[in-house]
Write a structure and sequence with these properties.
alpha+beta, Arc Repressor Mutant, subunit A, Alpha-D-Glucose-1,6-Bisphosphate, Chain A, domain 4, ten-stranded antiparallel beta sheet, transcription, lipid binding
Length: about 725
Amino acid sequence: MEEGQQQVNAYTDEDTDYTDNEDYNDEDYTLEPETASKRQKRHTPEQIRELRAAYQQNDHPDEPTRCALGAKIGLEGRQVQYWFENQRSQMQAKAVVQKSKAAQRENAALTAENMSLRKVILTNSCFSCGGAMVPAELPAENRRLLRENMRLRGECIRATALLNQILRSAPPAERRPPAVVACRPVLSVGEGASKADRAARLRRHAEAAMDQFLLLATKGEPLWLPTPDGEELSYLGYQKKATLPVHHGFCPDGFIMEATRETGMVRAFVADLIVMLTDAKRWSEMFPGIVAGVTANGAISGGVLGSRIQLMNAELWVQSPRPLNRSINFLRYNKRVAEGQWAVMDVSVDGILGPLGSRTADAAAVANNTGCRLLPSGCLIEDMGNGYCKITWVVHAEYDETAVPTMFRPLLRSGKALGAHRWLASLQRQCEYLAVLHSIQVPRGDNDNTAAISSMGKRGILELAQRMMTVFYSAVSGPVTQPSSNLYEWPASAGTGARRTDAAVRMVTWKKAGSVADLVLSSSTTVWLPNTPPQLVFQYLCDGQRRGEWDVFANGEAVTELYSVATGHLHGNAVSVQYSNVMTDGTDSKKVLILQQACTDASCSTVVYAPLEEDFMRAVMNGGDHASVFLMPSGFAILPDGHGRARHAPRSSSAPVGRDNTAGSLLTMACQALLPGSSPSDNHAADGAFDDVGKLLCHALKKIKAAVKANIVIPA
């Protein structure tokens, strides 16, 4: 044992050297008289060469290989093993030294760069050129002046283009100096123009707008400037690049510009998207939360999948009874711009089809017809294969901000109400919903309470949920158009003193279809929850264990989920059938099931539900017809208030939702109820129902405020 330990120490002392001198490391084989007594074992130069050659081939030889190598060079297998261990240790030590030196060099370079940057900051100079540096964040007044300057520049360019067009179109004898001609109204295509001239004028307008749209959709900096919340259009850069801007006449007073762009992947085929976007009915169905209604006034030219120009009118809404709906007249032009790439562009025809571009136009006419004017906007679709498309969506518009309630102005300015992010997020969610709808797979639940259901039953549930959402959107944001309907503004409140909750509720009553006396009461209100992220409110409303706190249909208790199907990749997007302990009124009491759809993205979250008798719901789940099922949906729409910077919703309920920014929520609550045996002239019965529903909404609002720990609630 002592002899072996002596040999180990001898080999270790001999071969362990961490200097960079290769000749000294393993070749200290000179036999001096003094050292010979201390080191009894030495390696000859031939042995060192053989060992190094073997190390180059394999630095971890096994025992037979070591024994064979030792027999070849006159060493024991154990001696060879010790040499290889020492050699590996030396190589590792050298690698550590080299890595340390590289880290020191990198640290020195970073230190020098840091010092130069500190000098630049202290001297307020540019790092690349050494010149004076413009402040990164301009004062608010300077930013306002810059925006105003850009707006005036755009108005000047449009006025110049309009003037040149009028001068070119007028006969030489009728031409006047610019000061006189500039006050003339825009030439109307519809006045004194033939059908062919009208179509040619619209085609030229569409082609010019398409060029500008492709510029907006494909170019980056300096046309689009990065911001903490995404991108911002540089109007100065846009005016430089858009050499032939599409003109719409003068920008009316009170109008502001919005420009947003968003890019994302959509699960769909190019051909399906083109057909959906060019068919007015299907386009409206794909965006039920944005498009209230659309009318196609006929195609100007083209076929179904080829380049096509059509004149359309659409009404857009936001999920709240407060903002007015937008009505726009526009051309839709779809065109193949490259292999596997299509563009679908919209541009307003205001100033093209009528004298609305003139300063002398009637102010009321301008407000009614140009509440929103689309500059070249739309989507660029690129086929990515495997059933996916890359979508670049652009919204560039002018709208009358004076008609927008003050509380909703930050939301619209942020682009999350009707901007590119809202359109793209809605398209992604709807495509995911349709993929689940047409799939033959039936999800199975994880608990014993989940009901068995067929593929036809799943389809019936999803289609019924779609119809429920359409009715809900109409009840919240739809105009009152039915002849028998009545609109009331009802002040509702609950509680007293500091705990008092107030809300201005919109009450609408109309006759139920197929009934002589029954009235349907639809009530809705919107409140602002400052510094309360929308995801907090959405998570609370989707919590089945706490549903009894705010939902009268839950009878103060938790609800049980009988069936659920996920309709999107974000956690919370699902259609479910839930069971409560509530019974229908009357002698023939029946159990009530709740059909609910919850959907969320960064632009909007909704939780919509409708109570149905168990027999009707079971019939639909078994594949029965759902067309005759009468729905009175209630629910919530949660919009961001436009003050926060958070752009994307969490992907799971476990993701933290912080309060480190100013993000708040605009919460819209809606409730529908049947007033049996009532009539529009029965004011006493209606007043009592209004009070009851108003208190119900205020009670739910009070519970939500306490659950999400909102400090204040402000009626919209």
